[in-house]
Amino acid sequence: MANLINLDRVSKGYDAAGELLTEVSIGLDDTDRVGVVGRNGAGKSTLLRLLTRADEPDAGRVTHRRGLRVASLPQTLDLAGEATVGEVVLGTGWLAAGFDAEHEWAGDAEVRTILAGLGMPELGLDAPVGRMSGGERRRVALAALLVRATDVLVLDEPTNHLDVAGVDWLAAHLLGRRGALVVVTHDRWFLDTVCAKTWEVTDGTVHSYEGGYAAWTLARAERQRRAAATEARRQNLLRKEIAWLRRGPPARTSKPKFRIEAANALIADVPPPRDEVSLRRLATARLGKQVYDLTSVALHAGPRPILTDLTWQVGPGDRVAIVGANGAGKTTLLRLLAGVQPPTSGQLRVGSTVQPAYLSQELTELPSDQRTLTAVEQVARRVTLGDRELTASQLAEMFGFSGDRLWTPVADLSGGERRRLQLLRLLAGEPNVLLLDEPTNDLDTDTLAALEDLLDSWPGTMVVASHDRYLVERVADTVYGMFGDGRLVHLPGGVDEFLAAGAAGSTAPAAAGGAGQPSPAAPSRPATQERAARKELTRLERQLSKLERRESELHEQLATHATDYAKLSDLDQQLREVREQRTATEEAWLTLADQLPSS
């Protein structure tokens, strides 16, 4: 590995936000694939600007390897309106500076392949970007980065404006790309798929973790669990501290290691996300037997047909996700269910007890002349969600509004904060049907987790249109796909089935391609060798369990014999030996686990 970028005791702040990063020291190597996470406003985008030298630090130093090629996708773009797609993508536009003008870029066919992967197959290279939507312009800018060979690729929210197929394509493309990658995104599936390291920006500093989103979540929870256990043990021994203060026993600490046992211990007593039977019973009590019944419905968006002869039923307690390409009609379908847009033909019957709440992609309904808490209390001062009763301020805190932010004028909130407030106000109204259009836009990962936790215990009917694969798989029980051909298709296999159906529709007929034939796999280690390695891995895991039990027993004996100096000395020696064995066994387990293919 070669080091590419270093931040040495870097600090950065702005007048409006104060100091965001304080004496941060971190480095980027040429093989790193880093996902950057943290709450909105914590300093993630600032960190990216420092890495790329778009901003200079207030203190400290940022160093680049000589001749380093860095390409960056910022959140805010500045594309010349008169420029064409070809000029932007092929390098004569906004990104030409800093690159070798004589470089032989990929041919037009490859450019079109990248544009198609980003959901823009209909665009020609001569199309002016000034006439495009914000999402299209962002995808053109992303394509301009992807056709270039770079040492470091820095992407700030690259999945915005991409549908689920586009996110899937981008993940595959980045996995096959050489060079270092640093990406800020709230798409947790994308983080887990693409990234091998996670940087958490919090409290003015940056913590580094090995692994993607799932590994970071487990490591963070394990860190908090260990901190709580350490504090509990400290409190338990505090009353004995004076008695053996003069003996000065050595600190009993060990470096935490991430392994499968830690993950199992964290989730051992966690109940399922939701009790579906109980929630459906509650939903039936609140909603009656009918929610939405569609019979032979046709729906148009202007002259374009969205649905053709659709007969569909949504019942009490149903949790439905709608997936589809951008422009397939997901928003139009939600507007139909919300009563904003009538069907072109056919019949839509809505249950008499239905109280819907529609989350649109716009933020125009927020009262900009009020403060945050007042805007929530305007809807309700107390809220009952599932089996929980919350005050407006408690609900606001779950969505990241606490302290001074409760009293911030709505007009001064960031885009992500306004989105959170929009969700707050909807839930505070205690609807029994939620219609959510891209609810994860602009939300950070912690806020998304809080939202999903609420939705897990929410007993009403929910229809959500989203490109966030993680959210779909977490909160929905049923997935339907829209393919732009007037159909709404039930997908028992979820997002994977949608992607497979899309891929099948864009390739040659199966009969011509040898249907059913598996693709050639890369050669793997001999089966007997792998079996032996896995057997050794199992033995090491059993050994670790024994050592952990022994370490726990020694801690209990130390507490029991706290006044027996000779016994304490003997037990302490045994504890040191057990820890040494455990460390060696953990290292052997980690080394062997890294060598084995994922099962």
UniProtKB/TrEMBL annotation:
One of its GO terms (molecular function) is DNA binding. PANTHER family: ABC TRANSPORTER ATP-BINDING SUBUNIT, ABC TRANSPORTER DOMAIN-CONTAINING PROTEIN. It comes from Natronosporangium hydrolyticum. Transmembrane segments: none annotated. Residues 507-532 are annotated as: Disordered. Residues 5-228, 289-511 form the ABC transporter domain. Coiled coil: none annotated. Residues 507-527 have a biased composition (Low complexity). Keywords: ATP-binding, Nucleotide-binding. The keyword Acetylation does not apply. This is ABC-F family ATP-binding cassette domain-containing protein.
